[in-house]
Amino acid sequence: xxxxxxxxxxxxxxxxxxxxxxxxxxxxxxxxxxxxxxxxxxxxxxxxxxxxxxxxxxxxxxxxxxxxxxxxxxxxxxxxxxxxxxxxxxxxxxxxxxxxxxxxxxxxxxxxxxxxxxxxxxxxxxxxxxxxxxxxxxxxxxxxxxxxxxxxxxxxxxxxxxxxxxxxxxxxxxxxxxxxxxxxxxxxxxxxxxxxxxxxxxxxxxxxxxxxxxxxxxxxxxxxxxxxxxxxxxxxxxxxxxx
Length: 243
Ligand code: PGA
Known about the structure:
TIM Barrel; binds 2-phosphoglycolic acid; globular
């Protein structure tokens, strides 16, 4: 039985004051959300403790937007798994297309981050996905397969989430057609060879397409960027219904 994971990635948004205000609207709207799904928010590092504190009596779980592979050391600008555990973090996003693009994160680095997260009991959310050009050249499957195989090397498939996020769908309003997203998620499941693997879809998920996406057989949740910044819209996504 695969329990869906509905995660909001706030990216570089929300001061602590804004996060508190957001949760004062969002938490009452998800107080009766069925327990058949996990609800997660990934705030910026600076708002982790604020969100942890505001959400302490709720079933909302916390994710970080990254995690380093070392416990401590001379790694300016990085955050270690031990620091995250102190803030009640349960998940860590790794390999998002933004750090892949802006900071040239490699599959090897992403794998080290994911392994370190797992070693410390954090569940890595490993993002994979092809660019527009790669899809047009017919390379999408090859690219995703490489990212999955290298990103998951040495990883326990029962304690990881994969997020299939086609880059051309992120922040563009252009959602991947749900059947195609489902097809790719099915391929990922086959490549990994673990039927209970949790696979999310991400890329322009919104209240208007969540029910259809969640009705797909191989999509076990969503990673939501822009639409997670609106507490009412994200609550609607969290309260999705299978159609
Ligand atoms: P989006 O972002 O929902 O704004 O397209 C998704 C993501 O980057 O995870």
